[in-house]
Amino acid sequence: MENNNIIDRCEETCVHNNIVEKVDNNMPEDTILYDLADFFKVFGDCTRIKVLYALFESEMCVCDIAQLLNMNQSAISHQLRVLKQNRLVKYRREGKTVFYSLADSHIKTIFNQGLEHILE
Amino acid sequence: MENNNIIDRCEETCVHNNIVEKVDNNMPEDTILYDLADFFKVFGDCTRIKVLYALFESEMCVCDIAQLLNMNQSAISHQLRVLKQNRLVKYRREGKTVFYSLADSHIKTIFNQGLEHILE
DNA sequence: TAAACATATGAATAATTGTTCATATGTTTA
DNA sequence: TAAACATATGAACAATTATTCATATGTTTA
After folding, report:
1. A118 vs B35: CB contact, 8 Å cut-off?
2. What is the DSSP code (8-state) at residue A18?
3. B12: pLDDT confidence band, cut at 50, 70 and 90?
4. CA–CA min distance A96, chain B (Å)
């Protein structure tokens, strides 16, 4: 006796199978969709957004960013790691100082589209 | 006796004040940056990404989407509410059924930029 | 009007995540 | 080489969030 109670009733009656099938055939691979969501997750934090906006203007060291955002060095460093792992920033070392800068050309387009949307 | 221990040492010595000041002057308003992060947060979930991709192909009812993604009706309905609140989808009622469709023209550009980035 | 059904929603839970604190790493300079 | 310093990182904690379950809302039809 299989228990099918968890399956909503509408699955049997309401579903428009032709539509579902057509859409299903055109969906990108699951791994791509997961990667995409993970990528956008990076933009879903205000600190990271601020860091990226700052780097639009100039390359900056960790301390500079920390002061600009009025946050401590550790928090910024953790977030820079996330940005680095997602290939959104690159860095160069100059003595003790590490300068970060933007590594991606899509960020500005994405931000502008987002801005257009929220300002509409 | 003020306690300044929480302030990292580098704030006093390493910070490049000219850069910080210049960048600070060009930063968008804080409220905009928060709104932007909140907006991108919507794309940071795989279920919502899938729903939006599905709606690229066709308008769909809640049950259709639930079946397509093999999730229950409640989960989909909750996520559609988030998308609705962020003005990314719109809906029309036809009897008992509610059909959802895309409400925004920026989504495709944003997704494509994201795809280009992760496939690079 | 009552039953059937598609969708919406509140509450609870589990999982994820941003920040802080403490400390480690790596570079410079005295 | 030791001290000073900029940055990185692990662990812990607090806050956020996606899903599920139970149930409510709103529409149709018998």
Report:
1. yes
2. H
3. low
4. 10
